[in-house]
Every structure is written in C-alpha cells, then in structure tokens.
Amino acid sequence: MLRPIYAAASLVLSAFVASSAYAGEAGRIILVAGSAQVGDRAAVLNAPVQEGDMLVTGKDGYIYVKTIDNGLFIVRNSSKARITAYHVDQKNPQNTRVKLELLSGTARSQSGEAVKLARQNFRFNTPVAAIGVRGTDFTVFTDQDTSRVTVLSGGITISGFDGGACRPDGIGPCEGSAARELSAMQKGVLMQFRRGQSAPQLLPESNINMPPDAIAPPRSDEPGRQGGAAAVPVPGQPDLEVHKNAALQQVASTAKPNEPGNTGGIVTVPPVEPKPVDPVVTPPVVTPPVTPPVPEGQIVWGRWQAVLDQPAQLDFVTESAKHSTPIATNKYFALMRSAGREYTVPERGEIGFTLNKGEAYMLSDNPSIPLQAMTLENGSLNLNFDRRTFTTAFDLVSPSERLAMKAAGDVAYDGRFVADAGRANTMSVNGLLSSEKGGAAAYLFENRFEGTRRTVYGATYWTAAPPTK
User: Fold this and answer.
1) Which residues form the domain of 446?
2) In 304-452, which ranges are E strands?
3) Domain holding 118: CATH number?
4) By Cβ atoms counted within 10 A, which residue in 34, 75, 144, 396 is the most buried?
C-alpha cells in the first residue's frame, strides 16, 4: 500500500485567531442549512463552536465550520459529530492538539494550517476506528459498527480500536501492524473497518460498498466539491399553457348563444382563406464526418524507483503529464492507466490469466540485512464476472525460502480490483484490467511479515486465456 515519505513542514502559519483570544473556541459556522443544532441551541450563521460542542443535523441539515486555523469541518445531513479538542499553539506547533469525533452519519475534514504542522497530534475518531492524517482532505461515514473513508487529497492512516496501543482516548494516528493507509492517488476505492475485524479493508466503490458521498451527497456549494445534492430550489415559473387554456375557457363560458357567430352557445370561427404554400425545397444531403472511437486506456506499470543498481523503469512524473491516471503505488512500483476510454467489465462469464511478468523485493527492518530480489512462480489469476470477484496466487521464491501468496477480492465496474491483506489473504492487491492484447491485467502487491519483520513489495503483469464460458 502507499506509504509516502513527507518532508518536514516548512510552512509558516498565516495569521489566524489565537486560541487565547477565544477560550475554548474551535471555529465559527460559515454555513447552516435545514435542521441543525450546536449543543442545545439552534445553529446560526457566524456563531462560535466551542470545544466539546455536539453538532447535530437532521435529514435536511448541514453545518460548515471554519476552524481557527482556517481548516474546514463539514457535518452533512442526518449526522452527529463533535470537535472534542482544538488547541492551537502557534509558537510551538508540537503542543497543538486537535481531536474530532463522528458518532454517526457523514462528515468531511479538511486540515487547517496548524494541523498540517502537527499531524502527529491530530485524531479523528469514529465509534470503531481512529483516523490520522498526512495533511489531508477526507470524508467519513460511520454507524456503530462500520466506518468508511475516502480521500480527496493527501493520505490517511486508519486503525480499529484494539484496547491496547490504539484507544479512543488517544491522540494522533494509530500506526501499529493493524493500521492501513489510503492515498488520494488510489482512485475509485475506499477504506472500510468493521467492528471485530483485525484490520481495515481496501474496497472498490460500488453499490454494495457505498462511499460517504453516495450515502450523504455534498451540497452544490460545498467547497472543492461537485455537489451531489440538489441546489436550493427556484420558485416555479408560470405555466403559459395553463394561462392560455384558462383564457379560452373564460371566452367559451361567457359567450352568449344569440351573439353573431354563435350557435347554441358554441363558439364558431369564420372560415379562413388558405395561404399560398411555399414550394418545398429539399436541402442537399450532408454526410457528417465519422468520428473515430476513443481507444481504451492501456495499462502502464513498472518500477519507479532504482533498486539494487537497476535504473527505474517508469518515469512517474512524465507518465502523469501524459494524462495517465494513477491507480496504485507502493515503495518501488506504480500502476497507471493511460488516457482513453474506461474498460467495461463483462456482465457474465469467467476468465483466467497467465503470469507474464513479475518482480518483487523483500525489505527487512534490520538495516544490516540487504534488500533481496524475489522471483514469482506458479502464478494464477481468475475472475468471475457473474459475482464480480477475483482470486490470485503465486509462490514468492528466493534461494533460501518459498512463500505461498494468495488473495481474493472484488472487481469494480471499470476493471479495477482490490484485496486487503488479512483474514485468508496473505497480501494486499491493487489491480487493473484491460482489453489490450486480447485481455490483460496487472496488479501491485504488498505484505508485511510480522514474524520476521520484513515487507515484500511487488508488481505483476498477466495475459488472458480464452473465456471458459
């Protein structure tokens, strides 16, 4: 999974309201709509929100809070949230403490200036999970058992509460072995944690795995978003046809039977001389130009880092400039889709793939143990389009060991497929399908071996066999 390295923050805080000026003030309401409360009072525009205030919205309610460090906290409809702590220390950012809670519903958090300088002291809690940030804009949905997160920019770390190192009363991200990361570069996926799971799952957005924006769409005026909710309705315009029909009815009802031109109360219309008809001119037939179909986007993958004296295979910046869409990255590899039409997943059938290329490296936590190249053998990748699922497996081999790797997960409508490490899976997978060369697939994989304190990072490319049905 993506584990970006962030440079030390060099930003200087711009002027914002110091916490000492408004004791306990976390921010101010910049928009309120529908049924919305702050504590035991109705939410009103420009009202302060204090640390500890409960923010509650009804079915039509929204509250936008601009925090004291120019961040944004949005509570969407049918939600309950709280800014538990918002202490900002401008002179010593390491003393800043920010903690948000979403008890139920949907909320969006956009990091302010102080949070960006003290990310290690930011926490966003749900009833089941803790979320930390990397200087981030993200959206969360939660109920009492399940939390789902999508990222607009930056990245987040999410972990379930385990009663030990990761507790609801903590501050900062939980970064143990059960923590998982999600980056804005990983499009079309979300991170989900359910009560009782050992670790969060990376899942494709779908009608089953509905992202927060689908559950509670943003308003059309939400900053930085294309709102999914309807805009404020405009009063209806008069229906001219109704007015014309009413006028005609008025004429008919007031006409007298004995008036000239009327017979028995029926309005009669004097005959109208027909107008001469212009000759019909047939326009010349113009054949519209044929627009060639847009080609399907192709798989772009490779090692974007130099490894063991081998140069990088993929220039990530150059490929991005060519309008390639990043699908996933890990420490050494990147997977992208070139500009073009999206792949459409078949509705029926199954297909198997043959491993064409693969590359992997095992990295130890012990700096005295060198990075080791691994090979892949006995690969299999099978997709079931009826169920929108996939399974894959291979042997990860070095001169001294052979490790059986496997994973199973879901396939999205646009050909992306993902599986998270955990349960029966022995690795995380982020992949992409394509019609190129009669059918192709590629995926990045990663796994942490806690017993030996090692992590493997790899990439694979597959070609398709004929469909089995």
Assistant:
1) 299-464
2) 325-329, 333-337, 350-364, 372-384, 389-398, 401-411, 416-419, 428-434, 440-449
3) 2.60.120.1440
4) 75
Neighbours of 313 (CB within 10 A): 17
N residues, the chain: 469
| Whether the Cβ atoms of residue 132 and residue 140 lie closer than 8 Å to each other | no
pLDDT of residue 301: 94
Give, for 225, the enclosing helix (H) or strand (E). Answer: none
Under a CB-based contact definition with an 8 Å cutoff, are residues 34 and 60 in contact?
yes
Q: Which stretches in the chain have pLDDT values below 70?
A: 1-23, 225-283, 286-288, 290-291, 323, 422-423, 466-469
Q: Are 195 and 161 in contact (CB under 8 A)?
A: no
- Asked whether residue 250 is assigned to any structural domain, the reply reads no
Contact 407, 426 (CB under 8 A): yes
Do 415 and 342 touch, CB atoms closer than 8 A?
A: yes
Tokens of 58: 């009804």
Distance CA 241, CA 102 (A): 50
d(CA 415, CA 383): 11
Q: How many domains does the chain have?
A: 2
Sign of the four-CA dihedral 7, 12, 15, 19: positive
Distance CA 349, CA 467 (A): 7
Residues 39 and 185 in one domain: yes
- Dump pLDDT digits (tens) for 53-95: 999 999 999 999 999 999 999 999 999 999 999 999 988 888 9
pTM tops 0.70? no
**Residue-wise pLDDT tens digits, 284-329:** 776 667 667 778 889 999 998 899 989 999 888 788 777 677 888 8
- Domain boundary (164, 194, 215) is at 215
